[in-house]
Amino acid sequence: MKTFEVFSTTADVGIRIRGRDYSELYLNAVEGLNELLFGQSGADPGATESHRFEYLGDSCENVLVNLLGEIAFRVYEKRQMVCGLRIGEADRFHLKTELLVIPWPRIPRLEIKSVTYHRLKIVETEGMLTAEIVLDI
Amino acid sequence: METADFEKIGPHHWRLPRKKFPSMKTDGDIFASQAILAAAIADESLEQVVNVASLPGIAGNSLAMADIHHGYGFCIGGVAAFPAEGGIVLPGGVGYDINCGVRLLSTAIPIADLLENAESLGYAILKRVPTGLNSKSNYNLERRQFLRIIENGAEEIVRNYAGAKEDLAYIESEGKLEFSRPEIISPRAYERGYSQLGSLGSGNHFIEIQAVEKVFDPEAAERFGIAAGTAALMIHTGSRGFGHQIATDHIEILRRKNLSRIKVSDPQLVYAGIDSEEGKNYLQALNAASNFAWANRHLITEDLIAIFERIFHSSRKNLGMRLVYDQAHNIAKFENHRLGSQETRLLVHRKGATRAFPPFHPDIPVAYRTIGQPVIIPGSIGAPSYLLRGTAKALDLTFGSSAHGAGRRLSRHQAIRCAGETNVREKLKEKGILVFSLFSRGLKEEIPEAYKPIDEVVESTEEAGISRRVARMTPLVVVKG
Prior knowledge:
Number of domains of chain A: 1
CATH class of chain A: Alpha Beta
Number of domains of chain B: 2
Structural class of chain B: alpha+beta
Number of helices of chain B: 15
CATH architecture of chain A: 3-Layer(bab) Sandwich
Distance between the termini of chain A: 27 Å
Largest sheet of chain B: 8 strands, mixed
Largest interface: A-B, 30 and 40 residues
Number of strands of chain A: 8
Oligomer: heterodimer
Distance between the termini of chain B: 38 Å
CATH architecture of the largest domain in chain B: Alpha-Beta Complex
Number of helices of chain A: 2
Shape of chain A: globular
Shape of chain B: globular
Order of helices and strands of chain A: EEHEHEEEEE
Structural class of chain A: alpha+beta
Radius of gyration of chain A: 14 Å
Radius of gyration of chain B: 21 Å
CATH topology of chain A: Archease, Possible Chaperone, Chain: A, domain 1
Largest sheet of chain A: 5 strands, antiparallel
């Protein structure tokens, strides 16, 4: 089973993600975003720079939106690709991680302007967390 | 939902009565052909009209224009008003790209002269105006300079950078809304703003050099300074990352504060009382982003004028370059409207909708007072764009609003699939349209087939009586991010 899929809406795009726990869900969201923007996923062993990211939210949707918002900021303002997460703590309301970054491997395919809550709901079915997150481009 | 649920009120005017859904506090009105109505039912955007009609205190009806399509919470092409006293404000009713808008400039340059220089102009624009993803602002501003821009909008550009003071009269709200609280803007919004001022962006944003192909209303066209056979310039962009960050920040603030205690069908419809602290803060930030967008379009305008002056070895005056109008299509503003027999102060949200005020309205430029407000409806890449004018009927039916563009009908992936191996640039070149873009993928996403036919949108708008056609412009040079 794929851990992420990119899909499109009438005006924008989104990522459908799965994970057995919140750590995996957040990791797969980053993988999906990288596939969408750079056409590549998977951690880059050459990453030497990292940035601390910690977010305490009111829901897992809230954490996910803010994680992807942070990554989009790094991509477009810092011209970096977040090629992996070194997760310290991850649960429904909290994520503490290092964002592993490298300079843009190439110019991103598109510009994500905002990460939305549009129809966003993380659901758990038989031990698998799934979500669809729509990105404003 | 099906077409039979709608009552036909007039030509291209449909009503979904509030009795159809228990949550609706008012009717939903759609100004579109039957075909567009059917498409809107299919893409679920009419459910969003219902959701907006269900918001507390909505004044008048929940409205959708002919370019309706599915948005976040609130449909694109949607208009909704709430009382200034005791009403609500919702960031989802404005959208992420605050004060995304369009600006039209007229010129006295004959098409033949323009065509001789078309390629040079296209390359010069691509070189000078930051476009697309790999671009940064040409301006390296200090904080105090940036603050003055978000406080004063286009006025600041005219005062300290470039442009003519007379132009300000031809910008909606004269290019400036009241903003005095820089402390409410997040550091991240400032960072995104600094790096993107004066840039076009990507997606559906564009700069076009157009040919005024047909004039439908000679008196209005003359007053707007538009003549058949001459070139015109159109700019479509907004508040860039600054506005997006402000929208993101305030949706987050409102979501945390209010979502658990209000009843909305979609978290993107989260709202605050206009008089609440969160509501006031959002409105202030909205004004800052709006001012940024007007300044942004003004800076790009001045870049374009400088390019034209250099390539044609002539001054803007001799080239007849003049701002026809600049209008927002993602904004919320306080306006006076008649509700029943009473004049009421309302906060009108327009998301993918254009203000279209009629003749003699005090908020339109004096020079256009007997004609009505210019209404600019751009087409998709390769398609014509239209200049219209506002009507009294629009003021009666839509809070003085009209459509804003063609409206997407294919997703970006569908558009890329539809384009297949087609070389969009070459195909448009065969039609006499030169396209300048650093990325071919973006072009495929924006192919004409991805949008509703603009002629159908404009026809619906005119048949509904909410704007009247003045002129049609066809693209000659398109610069995309």
